[in-house]
Fold this sequence. Notes:
By secondary structure, this protein is of the alpha/beta class. It has nine helices and nine strands. The chain has helices spanning about 25-40, 80-90, 105-115, 130-145, 235-240, 255-290, 295-300, 305-310, 315-340, and strands at about 15-20, 45-50, 75, 95-100, 150-165, 170-175, 190-195, 210-220, 225-230. Strands 1, 2, 3, 4, 5, 6, 7, 8 and 9 form a nine-stranded mixed beta sheet that branches. About 25% of the residues are buried.
Amino acid sequence: MAGFRKAKAEQAYLKVSLYGPPGSGKTFSALLMAEGLANMTGKRIAFVDTERGTDFYAQHVPERGVHPEAFDFDTLYTRSITEITRELRNLKPAEHGVVIIDSITHIWEACKASYAGPKTKIGTLPMHAWGKIKQPYKELMQFLINSPFHVFILGRQGNEFTEDEDTGETKAVGVKMKAESETAYEPHICFRMESVKPVGRKGMKFAEAIPVMHAEKDRTGVLQGKSVEKPNFERVCRPLLGLLGPQQAQIQSEEEAAAVDAEAIANQDRDRIRVSREVAERLAAKFKLCESLTEAEALSRTITPGLKREMTQDDLAAVRAAYLAEVQRLKVQSMAVSLNGGHDLTPA
């Protein structure tokens, strides 16, 4: 349906990004949340594992204080973006309900490593290479955001740098997900994770670190600005489920938007050419009907800058040629009348 319409809930699945340093609890927290969603829907978890980080979570570990039982999920071990995209597209929504990508950092690095062409003098990728590199990555992200699955995109944490305007020195100004620049904020919710050691009693030598999830972005507004300790399905996902709609909205890709715009612009160009031709033909016909130089010059003054903007350069040149031809005809006719004693010898 084109045009504006009343807004409604059309997000049927949670789309979440998580990033943080090693050991901050990204994988374990994502599995806890995914397990709750899978149990709720009666479907399975599809886990893309780029670093064999799930091996121990697939086992029963009695010494593990939280969730000693083995997690139940299906795993794809690869960093190949083409393989990942192919296998994700082959998932059946009736069987799988949750997708975890761990980590998107490795996938982005693999995309950059796939470029086999020459590099710049300082060893970086040339500007013309980025479009080809980003294309499969954009297609994967587009699929994840639009897919009929709950999605968790995990990435490593890196520093964000900026250049000091006064000194020209580069300095760290914060942290970000190590991936393509927009990745962390493409999903509905973005969490930054850290492992925090609580302040213990004086003289206490050891304290159990607590995973804490900070909501940097939350389109639902439920968790925005909040920090969640020991994140799991009940603390993070449960409060958001009531906001989900019955179907998953599809976000238009850059290529789809470009195709729409290209068609619209092409139609506008065709309309402009048609209008231009009609205006030019009308003016040329009027010049032919002029009976005097004064009448032709008066007609030429009606061709305003606004009217000129409606015509193509070729049609404007044709109108000018028609005007000059008629001026020449009228001059010759006027001279002939003058030479014949004021009698117009033009055939009736």
